[in-house]
UniProtKB/TrEMBL annotation:
GO annotations of cellular component type: cytosol; protein-DNA complex
Residue numbers bearing the 4-aspartylphosphate modification: 51
Coiled coil: none
Xref: SUPFAM superfamilies: CheY-like
Protein name: Response regulator
Biological-process GO terms, alphabetical: regulation of DNA-templated transcription
UniProt keyword terms in alphabetical order: DNA-binding, Phosphoprotein, Two-component regulatory system
Ranges for domain Response regulatory: 2-115
One function term, GO molecular function aspect: transcription cis-regulatory region binding
Domain of life: Bacteria
């Protein structure tokens, strides 16, 4: 499984990638949507884990752009500012949604569900 992690909290996203790597999940990360779009052009990711609220481009906007170019990609949203509106928007897009702080085991479970 190849995973793209996108979150503007650099310490969080880099630690998540490292911890996923320890569990055998190949994960790349970035802290912005523009870089995520470039990375997705060069690498085939199975799942993108997107922060809902990021500067310049939201997780939902990024999901729409990634899904348009990579229709097989699955998505999981993360939010530290969980709201019912965000939850409904994420679920309406047919995606999984986790509220920060997340447990790595919960993320692993969602990742495995996404690729099944």
């Amino acid at each position: 499984m190849k995973v793209l992690l996108v979150d503007d909290e650099v310490e969080l996203v880099s630690a998540m990638a490292e911890r996923l790597g320890f569990r055998g999940v190949e994960a790349d990360w970035t802290d912005n949507g523009a870089s995520a779009l470039e990375m997705a052009e060069k690498t085939d990711y199975d799942v993108a884990v997107l922060d809902m609220k990021m500067p310049k481009i939201s997780g939902l906007e990024l999901q729409e752009k990634l899904a348009e170019k990579h229709p097989g990609m699955r998505f999981i949203f993360l939010s530290g500012h969980g709201s019912e509106k965000d939850f409904k928007a994420g679920c309406a897009a047919g995606c999984e949604y986790l509220i920060k702080p997340i447990q790595l085991e919960d993320l692993l479970e969602k990742l495995n569900q996404a690729v099944c």
